[in-house]
Automatic annotation (TrEMBL), chains A, B:
It comes from Suillus luteus UH-Slu-Lm8-n1. It holds the Pfam family Aminotran_4. This is Branched-chain-amino-acid aminotransferase. Its cofactor is pyridoxal 5'-phosphate. It catalyses: L-valine + 2-oxoglutarate = 3-methyl-2-oxobutanoate + L-glutamate; L-isoleucine + 2-oxoglutarate = (S)-3-methyl-2-oxopentanoate + L-glutamate; L-leucine + 2-oxoglutarate = 4-methyl-2-oxopentanoate + L-glutamate. PANTHER family: BRANCHED-CHAIN-AMINO-ACID AMINOTRANSFERASE (PTHR11825:SF44), SUBGROUP IIII AMINOTRANSFERASE (PTHR11825). Its EC number is 2.6.1.42. Keywords: Amino-acid biosynthesis, Aminotransferase, Branched-chain amino acid biosynthesis, Pyridoxal phosphate, Transferase. The keyword Lipid biosynthesis does not apply. GO terms for molecular function: L-isoleucine-2-oxoglutarate transaminase activity; L-leucine-2-oxoglutarate transaminase activity; L-valine-2-oxoglutarate transaminase activity. The modification N6-(pyridoxal phosphate)lysine is found at K222. Belongs to the class-IV pyridoxal-phosphate-dependent aminotransferase family. It is an enzyme of class 2 (transferase). Residues 1-21 are annotated as: Disordered.
Length: 394, 394
């Protein structure tokens, strides 16, 4: 059922044959044009915030044309975008995004958390879908501009933040299975709170018949098409009474991710030297999460061990449902943690697998998860300085 | 890096808890509202048609709202669509489409080719991404309306047609990794010609490090996110001098699809009883193509064997690059065919694999491919009646 153009060579501009890359305009934050909203929206009471439903007054937009390059980016009122219905973003899924948060510190300054990691991932995601190249450092400048402009939207309360969503979509206005030589970058800002009022544990259903990611696929990139295939399994899990899915991979039922988050287990060691902190390796089927990398870095830092009151042995390695069952039966499975930008660190209390529930001990977040969450929030909210992870805006 | 909402239960309307399915309006072709373009575009000379670049005067649009159901569908001038930038279609890739063609027969009637197969697949694709349910029979009524309205856009010349692109996109206007409870259906019409003036053979680069589809994924559905991950490998193949990719799967290098098309090989049999027509089985990693199914059906029909002048033994089975190399070295590999709605049937002349080229004999399409192409075009263009495959519009 191929499109006819699927036989064609790359379109002009795709391989630099219509215009040399050097003649195309680069994305340039210094060219930012600002069109402010005529009236500003009232801030919403923080109790009524629901994730991703409220947006600030403005967004930033820039477009890529294969003959011109990147347009001057523009701050404009947050609002709808208008596109040709034949655009690749609708037809062939050539869309990528990032999720970041800006926090207001006790010093009144807005901070991003390790935004360079998001930007490098955005560059890789764009390259993986053959979108026009984008300079993440410039995108970060634009993100900082938006944070600065929308500072009144960052809630002052701990655990609240301004969620930022840089998105790049493929806007080639025609059918044909070929890389998009047009693109649009936009950055949205949405005030958001902690997912839990109390840190309520999440139940997971381990699933192996639906597979989120696979070697040679796009599971290691933040591309839009990774997410919608999980919606039907997620609905089925919800109907069975579970909050989310634990994605397994392969005949040996390797544990990969939970929902759209990374997943860690805390395992008591036989030698009595603290605990193992285990998560799946970055083999292309796992999203390289910023919070994941941060927890692994903290876990290998003796200074953090003191704060955590336990020695942690971080391990990125393949582990399976059989391992989890064994650790559980031996009483070594101490904590199971969901890790991601939105949740930061959250507890899992049970895993449904083949008709049985593996129950995680305790009634909420355990000591390791609690220590991670506290430390990362302290850094994000500017109460602690730590290795330059908190980046002040602008 | 999960969204906070990825922990949440399905949104209202997702599981029918906000409004019972029976209270929602069904898509209804009899409610079609028609707003005609004020001026009609001039028809383009057929020599200048490029696939998917020219569109007819009108499109059909309908929207799904979780509280109301489907809106009355509307014929309106072909043009841009306006959406919230937080919509799922941009963020989470919840988009599906179909490709179909309307042909003008010698009797002056417009015909679709087995459109019921496209509509069942559209229903399955929507269900796979947890999009709101859609009745393919009603979509087909709308497609027929559009074909009837745009009949002047169907070129009269053999091999030319009006390509139709029913598309369903996820329009939930908010972030959060959850099924979209809003959707938009639109149907575009684009006049198109044969890909080749002469049936120029296509070269393929066999690729196993990038994997198009995998068990438990969406390769058996026509979802937008299946396509963009192939753009980078396609560009690399083009830089190596190949027109398209032959997607392999698994350690044993199973042959699956070519570009965005199904793939067949014609193999001389040892028993002298004609040829085997071999294609990969529908195991979830292969798109169930309409042209694929039609070739398989023709290949098992003795009446077609007479037209083809050879006895065909159709086989849907796993076969590998090792098999292709063996068949080639034994002189049994007679033809390799690309099969899809856009190309119909096209020849492959070589397959690059591990630094060597496997050369397919002959200088163009072989006798089996030629017979398939002629028969299917005869049915599509209304010169032959065959099992009800040609469906007159309206």
């Amino acid at each position: 059922m191929g499109d006819k153009d699927s036989l064609a060579s790359p379109a002009p501009g795709q391989t630099g044959d219509s215009a040399s890359p050097t003649s195309l305009a680069a994305l340039d934050a210094t060219k930012l044009n600002i069109t402010l909203a005529k009236t500003l929206k009232p801030l919403q009471p923080i109790e009524t915030l629901r994730f991703g439903q409220t947006f600030s007054d403005h967004m930033i937009v820039a477009t890529f044309d294969p003959e011109i390059g990147w347009s001057a980016p523009e701050v404009k009122p947050h609002g709808p975008i208008t596109l040709d219905p034949a655009c690749s973003c609708f037809q062939y899924g050539g869309n990528v995004f990032e999720g970041m948060k800006a926090y207001l510190g006790p010093d009144g300054k807005a901070r991003l958390f390790r935004p360079d990691m998001n930007m490098r991932r955005l560059e890789r995601s764009c390259a993986r879908l053959a979108l026009p190249p984008i300079d993440g450092d410039v995108v970060l400048e634009l993100v900082k501009c938006l944070v600065d402009l929308e500072k009144r939207w960052i809630p002052k309360e701990s655990g609240y933040s301004l969620y930022l969503r840089p998105t790049v979509i493929a806007t080639r206005p025609g059918l044909g299975v070929i890389a998009s030589d047009h693109a649009m970058l936009y950055i949205l800002a949405s005030p958001t709170g902690p997912y839990y009022e109390v840190l309520k544990p999440v139940s997971l259903l381990a699933v192996s018949d639906n597979v989120r990611a696979w070697p040679g696929g796009t599971g290691g990139h933040k591309v839009a098409g990774n997410y919608s295939p999980g919606f039907l399994p997620q609905r089925i899990a919800a109907e069975k009474g579970y909050n989310q899915i634990l994605w397994l991979f392969g005949d040996d039922r390797r544990v990969t991710e939970a929902g759209a988050m990374n997943f860690f287990v805390v395992i008591k060691r036989d030698d009595g030297d603290g605990v193992d902190l285990i998560t799946a390796p970055l083999d292309g089927t796992i999203l390289p999460g910023v919070t994941r990398a941060s927890c692994l870095a903290l876990a290998s830092d003796p200074e953090f061990h003191k704060e955590c009151c336990v020695r942690l042995h971080p391990q990125e390695k393949v582990y399976t449902m059989s391992d989890i069952i064994k650790w559980s039966s031996e009483g070594k499975l101490l904590e199971a943690l969901l890790i991601g930008t939105a949740v930061i660190v959250g507890p899992c209390n049970k895993i449904g697998y083949e008709g049985e529930d593996i129950v995680i001990p305790g009634t909420g977040m355990g000591p390791v998860g609690t220590a991670f969450r506290k430390k990362i929030l302290d850094i994000q909210e500017g109460r602690t300085e730590w290795k330059g992870w908190g980046v002040v805006c602008p």
